[in-house]
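Why do we care about 3D structure at all? Because function follows from shape, and shape follows, mostly, from sequence. That is the central idea of this module. The next example makes it concrete: a single protein chain, its amino acid sequence, and then its structure expressed as tokens.
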Amino acid sequence: MKDLTIVLQNRPGSLAEMGEALGRAGVSIEGGGAWVVDESASAHFLFADGEAARWALEAANIRVLAVRDVLVQKLQQSHPGQLGEICKQMAEAGVNIEVMYSDHDHQLILVVDDLDKGRSVSEAWMHKHFATGRKTHMYAIETCWTGNDGKGTESYVSYRRDHTIRAEDKPVIPGSSDPSFRGDRTRYNPEELMLASLSACHMLWYLHLCAANRISVLEYRDAASGEMRENADGSGEFVRVVLKPEVKISPGDDRDRAFALHTRAHQMCFIARSVKFPVDLAPRLLAEEN
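And the structure:
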């Protein structure tokens, strides 16, 4: 999720022009607000795909000053004082809250000056207030190296990176490393499996939410992509993943709701919540058939 700082003209029609520009691009607003201070109009709005929103706005000559990551914070709405408590904890950690508003799911959206410290406070809060009654799920797989050609790992070039991944009562997955690292291009590498996990988790949550909201999904496909950065010392990390789900729903179903459910699916996805790099969304609804 991304917060956009948007400059608007202080005149009738500015918000309408912004909304129309986003609508033409198929970009939904997930929360935020706009106001006038000292005759200057500005806005902060929340988007699942910040870059798509930026492109749509700038194409309409609407200035975007910043695209920033946010903290999505749950509060116990029935307990007075929750806002003061979480803000105090942020302050005690030296975190300055620069922007605050609610999203469409009544969650608190915070833009802070120190995202890492703010995330630590947020995660501790969630554990304290929402951990009661949590279920724990355990998973097990077996990874077996099959690339010993007789000399083992005598040198960097003396062995293959081939391996198998298996779980009880399930088909074996043939694995290797990326061909850039002397892997077999006909086998799945860990980076592809990471991407596949994110894509599949989002899809399964989205299908569930559509079923719960009486939206009938007829087709779903996702051409997901990921960017990994390799460092000078040979280490590396993913820096971004983009999920690009294309969905076809039954004619007459609520298209705006179907689009918005991608954001909720992202918020619920077990895998996306477990990684430290941004997972952005660029969803698309296929045109209805006549």
